[in-house]
């Protein structure tokens, strides 16, 4: 972690009277703790990355990019020191921060060793800050207040992120799987507004890479370039015809070559269904010119039901039509028509918040 830090290089020419400005006479370039010690004493050889600007009088805040020193205490220790300063008792401070008094005493001693200065004078009457401890406490108060502001800001960012979820999915997943997943998500996150966009697998990738969606789902053969993904379900494609089509009465399976040579009702290029079919028939002459090329699963299904011609559709999309005999599945032998359904997201940006929860639900409620 780097940040603009108060710092100095060279020799400090101050008179040693500036407890807050770090006008010690020591050389610059060391730790915050040593600078605090030099500033509190007014003289000495304490080094001061945190205080002083180098030569001359040493302004308090000289912007120098640096890494946090190993001598900077953690926030928990600083909060404990502030409680001791406010309550005047190590025991009361321990109770306030929720630890035992021995643990609090050990933490204060550890911080004193870390900084190299004594912070607290302990006596039967209570605990009193040393001069250096008072200076460190003043610094600690500003650090803790800044941390509280940082935490509040991060919580606001998380709240804004969690208030909405933008999902983009290819047609079959959008129509037949996502509704159930989104209903389950609403039960877990009732305050999250969800928007769902549907498109082919190429459109899903484009919208994710453009930052227009938080999580996507695709049906193609592989994860699109620029995205990471995980398999959430499995699916098979089926060749279907209307009951009046001659293929509905044939007994022998369709061969890949016969299927490739037949004009079909197809999804458009870029769809996961088309990718799988193109790959399955690539070694058999490739697809014939489509009878119809349509942009949605519903449209392809409607055309097949009307008797326009054979179609290739996801088994998820045709279960009702097969059950009611509005469509008839035609066996195909020798072609691989199965596929994986994947959740995808931009490479290196693992889903968080509602997107992460939706991804978990796809695994808890598998389909296909």
TrEMBL record:
Belongs to the LysR transcriptional regulatory family. InterPro entries: LysR_HTH_N, LysR_subst-bd, WH-like_DNA-bd_sf, WH_DNA-bd_sf. Keywords: DNA-binding, Transcription, Transcription regulation. Residues 8-30 have a biased composition (Gly residues). This is Transcriptional regulator. It comes from the Bacteria. PANTHER family: HTH-TYPE TRANSCRIPTIONAL REGULATOR, HTH-TYPE TRANSCRIPTIONAL REGULATOR CYSL. One of its GO terms (molecular function) is DNA-binding transcription factor activity. Residues 73-130 form the HTH lysR-type domain. SUPFAM superfamilies: Periplasmic binding protein-like II, Winged helix' DNA-binding domain. It comes from Streptomyces filamentosus. The keyword DNA-binding applies. Residues 1-30, 346-368 are annotated as: Disordered. It holds the Pfam family LysR_substrate.
